[in-house]
Design a protein that fits this description.
Blueprint: E1 3-10, H1 27-38, E2 47-48, E3 57-66, H2 73-81, E4 88-96, E5 106-116, E6 130-131, H3 138-148, E7 150-153, E8 169-180, E9 183-190, H4 197-209, H5 217-224, E10 239-246
Parallel strand pairs: 3-10, 5-6
Antiparallel strand pairs: 1-3, 1-4, 2-3, 5-9, 5-10, 7-8, 8-9
Helix pairs in contact: 3-4
């Protein structure tokens, strides 16, 4: 049966995360509702590169599904977007080989986190950028970012609710921070991420920027593998799943 891969963007504000939940509006439930209409009542299961939490956005989430319908890959985009709500959009769609899997074939993910670092809030950004009105030392943050790059056990930066069994070793290829005007952008590129990992790292880096944590303490946190040593989890609405890369892409 033909397999279709889609790149999906969504505003996470009014979603209870990606994964289907009973009596909750989720990204997956809206996608599968649209597919069910196209398939005249037949249930079509979608598979994603990974879950996102309530309030988290995506510019480049990837899903796949199988369908008996004879529709060219690029026509799926138009067909689905006519049925999807305004806060969910198919960026592109294509036919892929039978052995492709949106989750298991991932080789790199990129997340970005945005902060509005001004004294006063911008009410038009309140659901999409985290307002943090305190002064930050970007040089200290940049130093801390360097200690996070590479292959480490990220237990200290993983939620206690994580269901990952075994080692929590991941490789981060890039951890960077830049500021344009009043807006700060964090970029995280890695082989994979633990539950709440990016948001816990951001919360910790903000404490570094305020002088509450010395940048070199990041090294100790990684070595001690103690969640209590890291900081609070940053809010969901500043986080975006930006891009997902696959082998042979």
């Amino acid at each position: 049966m033909p397999k279709i891969k889609c790149t999906v963007a969504y505003d996470g504000t009014n979603f209870f995360g990606f994964q289907v939940q009973p009596d909750k509006r989720t990204v997956q439930s809206e996608l599968e509702k649209a597919l069910k209409k196209m398939h005249k009542g037949e249930e079509i299961r979608t598979y994603a590169s990974g879950r996102t939490d309530a309030g988290v956005h995506a510019r480049g989430q990837t899903i796949h599904f199988e369908s008996k319908l004879d529709i060219p890959g690029n026509s799926w985009k138009k067909a689905l977007n006519t049925l999807l709500p305004e806060d969910l959009f198919i960026q592109d769609a294509e036919m892929v080989s039978d052995d492709f899997h949106a989750r298991y074939d991932v080789v790199e993910k990129e997340y970005r986190y945005f902060i509005w670092n001004a004294q006063e809030p911008d009410i038009f950004k309140r659901y999409h950028i985290y307002h943090f009105p305190y002064k930050l030392d970007l040089k200290a943050i940049e130093e801390a970012c360097r200690y996070l790059e590479g292959t480490h056990d990220f237990t200290a930066f993983s939620s206690a609710k994580s269901t990952v069994k075994g080692e929590k070793i991941r490789t981060l290829y890039e951890v960077s921070c830049s500021k344009t005007g009043e807006q700060i952008e964090f970029i995280f590129r890695g082989s994979g991420f633990l539950y709440n990992m990016v948001r816990i790292i951001v919360g910790t880096l903000l404490n570094v920027g305020q002088g509450r944590i010395d940048p070199k303490e990041i090294i100790t946190m990684l070595e001690e593998k103690n969640r209590q040593r890291a900081s609070k989890t940053a809010p969901a609405h500043g986080l975006y799943l930006w891009n997902v890369n696959y082998k042979n892409q």
